[in-house]
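Reviewer 2 asked us to include a model.

Predict the structure of this chain.
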Amino acid sequence: MAQIRYKAFFKNKLTDSMSEASETHTRLEFCYACNYINKMVFKKLDSRYEQIIGMLNSMDKKADTFCFPTSQLLRLTSSKRK
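Predicted model (structure tokens):
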């Protein structure tokens, strides 16, 4: 698995992803309210939304595991200068 260099950048992208998912969920609720989709479809998609948000939140809480440790990052940047 590829690792991200900067934790703040990674967390920012996760926040962007959660915002996009929330917007999509709002549209899903609108579709259901206007009878564009039935209750079964709504529940299925709503459940999937909850799973995705849960995964994104979990990744946010464990951002360190997806990013280079600071000490390793310093070694990487200094080795590129040589």
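The chain has a mean pLDDT of 86. The longest helix spans residues 7-33. We have added this to the supplementary material.
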